[in-house]
């Protein structure tokens, strides 16, 4: 069987968690392939609202197996808190949550390095979630990292000490006060809990599962515009958020990939620093932020809001090979006077329809098409045939522009507020 991939096409927070949860009943296995606790994936059902950071969004399904892949970085402290949250909701995670031995560990000193690096950057800071993501992936590619499988080795503590000593040397180069020791007890207590989890060689597990005809959904974190290679560098995260990341982050061969589901909001948001050509600095931006409750699921920071950006979406669709689109948060735009869609940019005086190398500064100006908005509360609607004409027209317009079908229109945060467009 093929492995389907679900990922964000914008700057994250598109609603990946919600849709993975909705789709899980069709899959035997849900596998996270990159990122770490910088992610916040929100699920709402039966009156419960739950935010996951490291654990895949299929965990609430009674039987689906959930895998944290080798491409993910894990903070044991946050992971422990996530498990405690699941325990309260009577989720039996022991039997259905497996962790790749090759996933890397976030150490307390990685978080300190993240904070020190951001502090040193001053006004040029990335706006990192300060979860230690960048420094942990740096140690991975620098071949210094600690992995989940190392926890099982007799010399784990001395490996830990060796790495922390390296970090202390680095930290001493920054004008930054720190106390690693104060953070260590909680970390090691959380490692003890991690040890009780089921570790696997996820590439082998998945290869067998695919042979056995199991359906696998690979769940991405962040969004394509935050990808380390293809995002708005350097204002990006430190992993490959694009579809190729599912291959390297799980050990799945490219020819095993089936559908690539690309999720996008009917408008656009960004949290943290970096260019955002269609950002709204006026009251419309504030209105979208309020209507969409656009505050970060991980850090609580307000999300910057703006209009949908088609050149950026086309770029993301192309890089990922998206086969099906899913449009989120259509309900948020209800009752706006009109909707604007950025179709081109004016870039250094020229009209272009692609995302150029450098979109920082004043060299880029969005060119908009203005469409009529729907004046209907969508949140109780369940069928495409119930949707107002203006929204159907918006969906049809985007499908034509993006040359890809929109198969889901989401009209609210709850599992049930999901309209299939077959
Ligand atoms: P993720 O990181 O991609 O999983 O997305 P987040 O959970 O960080 O952010 C999406 C937010 O929008 C969450 O608060 C969701 O509950 C909410 N949400 C998802 N889909 C919809 C929708 O169609 N309408 C509205 N109003 N909210 C939605
Ligand atoms: P989900 O999976 C939105 C952003 C941060 C910052 C940049 C780098 O919930 O969509 P990092 O902590 O990775 O070093 O931060 O990336 N960022 C996200 N923005 N959603 C996310 O995840 C994000 N994860 C990281 O705000 O700008
Ligand atoms: Mg999120």
Give a concise summary.
This protein is an alpha/beta fold and 422 residues long. It has helices at 16-23, 76-88, 108-121, 133-141, 156-171, 180-195, 202-211, 244-250, 283-291, 310-320, 389-402, and strands spanning 3-8, 29-32, 41-45, 48-52, 65-68, 73-74, 97-100, 104-105, 198-200, 216-219, 257-265, 268-270, 304-306, 308-309, 324-328, 338-347, 350-352, 364-372, 406-410, 418-420.
For the largest sheet, list the strands in their spatial order: 9-7-5-2-10-1-11-15-19-20
State the distance separating the first and last CA atoms.
22 Å
Listed once per kind, the bound small molecules are: guanosine-5'-diphosphate, 6-O-phosphoryl inosine monophosphate, magnesium ion
What is the CA-atom radius of gyration, in angstroms? Answer: 21 Å
Helix count?
11
Q: What integer is the average pLDDT? A: 97
Task: Give a count of the beta strands, DSSP E runs of length 2 or more.
Answer: 20
For the sheet with most strands, the description reads: 10 strands, mixed
Fraction of helical residues? 25-40%
Poorly predicted regions: none
User: What would you call the shape?
Assistant: globular
Structural class of the helix and strand makeup? alpha/beta
Give the percentage of residues in beta strands: 15-25%
Summary keywords:
single chain, 422 residues, alpha/beta, ten-stranded mixed beta sheet, four-stranded mixed beta sheet, globular, binds guanosine-5'-diphosphate, binds 6-O-phosphoryl inosine monophosphate, binds magnesium ion
